[in-house]
């Protein structure tokens, strides 16, 4: 892993932010691409936010990219471009919580702070057969105390990385390789013969599904209307085609017309359905229905925190979009689509 071959705190920080919600094999190409584009904290701080989001596109949880960008600007502005070397200094930066602060402090600066990510939680709850719900704050405090007590003060970075990678490669969620594990002699869950019982978590709820209708709003020059999502929304800062959720009993084309009236103050005529795709997020699934549209009344007037642009299909590549919208863009290019609404 490339972030294991550097002592640059900036690059270690970037890797830990990426790994918060992403598997190692998924994160590695994004890490390479991101650090090629922004090799230093100064480069990241000076970049336009849209450029940062474009490099992050497809990795998900986009608030991580926005916060990383803001934190880099803080490091340059308030710390002279030097990443803070203490746990508290790191934790003061936007987007850095206890886990990331401990990881960067231990790996980059040799500070004895135990990390507590999903892999470490799984190892510790199995070794100590912790019966309490691992998502509860009290249980997390107990686990953090264990991680801090167990970390090697002489080599905290290596100790933390070893524990994380033990969880990722040996003490796996399903079919853990207990016979290959160096902690098996002291592991209470392995001794009892049911390691997969841990960590204890609440019962999963059914994953909801939403039908989403979006408008491919064309002007007479063949340009498309796109809008940027509010920073405080899911996928904040990314661009999208305007639209929203279908209400109960509402057809997607009716939802498309209603949403564009509510969001932008325009009345549109819809053409035949252009494309339908399914996409899964971490906590819900969607079916996206896209309709070519022509404005028949009104002028698009977005909310102040949702700026809009008219762009050509080729220019869509210059903007950062959610993955579902990107699939739609690829289909527009593949078909070399031109609307029939103005014929």
Please summarize what this structure is.
By secondary structure, the protein is an alpha+beta fold. It has 13 helices and 8 strands.
Q: Mind explaining what this structure looks like?
A:
This protein is an alpha+beta fold and 343 residues long. Among the domains are: 2-111, Orthogonal Bundle (Endonuclease III, domain 1); 209-335, Nucleoside Triphosphate Pyrophosphohydrolase. It is 41% helix and 14% strand. It is built from 13 helices and eight strands. Strand 6 (275-280) and strand 7 (285-297) form a beta hairpin. Helix 1 packs antiparallel against helix 7 (98-109), helix 7 (98-109) crosses helix 10 (156-169) and helix 8 crosses helix 10 (156-169). The chain starts with 8 loop residues before the first helix and ends in an 8-residue tail after the last helix. The model has no long low-confidence stretch (mean pLDDT 91).
Query: Mind describing the biggest β-sheet?
Result: 5 strands, mixed
Name of the top-level CATH class of the domain at 209-335: Alpha Beta
In helices, the fraction of residues equals 40-55%
Shape: globular
CATH level 4 superfamily of the domain at 209-335:
Nucleoside Triphosphate Pyrophosphohydrolase
Which residues sit in consecutive blocks of at least 5 with pLDDT less than 50?
A: none
Beta fraction: 5-15%
Report the CATH architecture of the domain at 209-335.
Alpha-Beta Complex
Helices and strands, in order, run as HHHHHHHHHHHEEEEHEEEEH
The tally of beta strands, per DSSP, is: 8
- Derived structural class: alpha+beta
Mean pLDDT: 91
EC number: 3.2.2.31
Organism: Longimonas halophila
Cofactor: Mg(2+); [4Fe-4S] cluster
Keywords: 4Fe-4S, DNA damage, DNA repair, Glycosidase, Hydrolase, Iron, Iron-sulfur, Magnesium, Metal-binding
